[in-house]
Amino acid sequence: MIPESDARFGPKQAEERDARVTRVGRFLRATALDELPQLWNILNGDMSFVGPRALMPTEIETKSNGVAVSIQMIPGYLERHQVRPGLTGIAQVYAPRDVPRRHKFMYDRKYIRNQSFCLDVKLIFLSFWITFRGKWETREKKF
Predict the structure, then answer these.
(1) Residues 60 and 71: beta-carbon distance below 8 Å
(2) What is this structure's pTM?
(3) Do the domain assignments include residue 15?
(4) Domain range for residue 92?
(5) How far apart are CA 35 and CA 19, in angstroms?
(6) What is the pLDDT of residue 20?
């Protein structure tokens, strides 16, 4: 991200062709190397490999009419805090990066209801596969 991106653009969800991302940042995101620092959080026990993505409390969601909504008001926000945040999850594997949070929160709730070792292994495998193929940043089918 460019320096002071939150100050210039305000806190917002990353989107396709995000103006805040530098050329180096595009490479890091395309190869998922920007996620490597999260391994420290996993080793510390603050995160797990699989679970809902951690969010900044100041993040907002913008409705189609341009009205800003606190993410805490989106259905599913409280449920996603029942489990430890993760590096990858159902929303990261199956949803496009720029879908509204209410859709991502639906995926997160599905993960919470169906959480299992087998599901975690499947999501980790699919995450590696998507990363290997370089399909994180594309809107086409990921596998």
Answers:
(1) yes
(2) 0.71
(3) no
(4) 38-133
(5) 20
(6) 79
